[in-house]
Amino acid sequence: MSDTVTIFEVGPRDGLQNESNLVPAAQKIALIDLLSRSGLRQIEATSFVSPKWVPQMADAAEVMAGISRVDDVTYSVLTPNMRGLTAALEARADSAAIFGAASESFSQKNINCSIKESLARFRPVSEAALSAGIGLRGYVSCVVACPYEGTIQPDAVRDVALQMLDMGCHEISLGDTIGKGGSDDIRRLLDVVARDIDGALLAGHYHDTDGNALVNVEASLDYGLRVFDSAIGGLGGCPYAPGAKGNLSTLSLFDMLSDKGWDTGLDRDALIQAEQFIATAIASEKEQ
Ligand code: HMG
Ligand code: MG
């Protein structure tokens, strides 16, 4: 069994998409550059979504153009449709992510279509990403609960995940979007999902609303998951998931994994520097 865990940093995207005060592109670029020097190999930099839906990400092209890329770091972006994918390719993203949900209501609220329609929309996006030779990640949101319709059944998560894998995704990130799951819920989920999908193809994306994210990571390790999403400073949430708090903090995840003997390859001091930088940047936007 591998003793290595990959921390997939989503702070510049999941974290900053939910800030009520817009963080200037220059600050986002500086944050990504600090994160790039912390040993992280996976950084979700931004998303090419409609600026009408998520104004915080309207500067996606500027951010991608401004970062100083580090070899071996994969800079990925969210791409909800062909328009997003085209922009992602123009911006030289290394990996694209389609993002759907296991909840009908959340799918409607977040991307304005049904689950079935979203999967049909994702197919050409996936084909274009693969033919361009970039990575392709799939997100399934509301893997435990939905802010609009409550409990979600694991079968619904598995079905969407399998269809995304069929489109060529190399990894499926399982999103506890509102952070309401406990480790029993995650085990109940993975009893079904990891029975049909190798844990090595799954990632855990656990928002930390109720403080369960770390125990959810621990539970997931038992099912073979070795990739976990987290956000620097525990930033984050989804504008279309009321009540969703931040992602699991990257530093907390690093500390827990290190304590338990897992190697992540990250430099703790560099993470602290990035965390302090973005906390100051956000605080100064709030003062203005
Ligand atoms: P729509 O309104 O149905 O689509 O939105 P549309 O095609 O009618 O487009 C509306 C307008 O947006 C049009 O502009 C389009 O041109 C423009 P207008 O003609 O009115 O001036 N547009 C775009 N502009 C830039 N880039 C694009 C793009 N597409 C359309 N790619 C759509 C459908 C999917 C576009 C919209 O619902 C959307 O952008 N949703 C994104 C919502 C979002 O980003 N949510 C947060 C990320 S998901 C998340 O946080 C969960 C996750 O972290 C996992 C977890 O925690 O569970 C991943
Ligand atoms: Mg999220």
UniProtKB/TrEMBL annotation:
Keyword ATP-binding carried by entry: no
Keyword Zinc: no
Molecular function terms from GO: lyase activity
Residue span(s) of domain Pyruvate carboxyltransferase: 5-272
A Pfam family matched in the record: HMGL-like
Keyword set, alphabetical order: Lyase, Metal-binding
Protein family membership: Belongs to the HMG-CoA lyase family.
Name this protein carries in UniProt: Hydroxymethylglutaryl-CoA lyase
Origin species: Amylibacter marinus
